[in-house]
Amino acid sequence: MTKVITFKNRTVPVHYPSEQATYLELLHNKLLEMEYNFDFRKKWRRIASVEMIRDVAILQYNDGTKLYMEVC
Q: Is this prediction's pTM over 0.70?
């Protein structure tokens, strides 16, 4: 399934299996926790999409590189 998440006035598609919808809420909570982390906010501007695999968010940049973030 795909859902769009908004963080700091930027929307990014989030891809996740339908049985793992609860981890989407964990991602939202983690983004709220990272709200004042300016290094992360700088990285967020270059994120093209997010893929959720259990409790790990794989943030994919425009150039194809990935950043793994634990959300639990």
A: yes
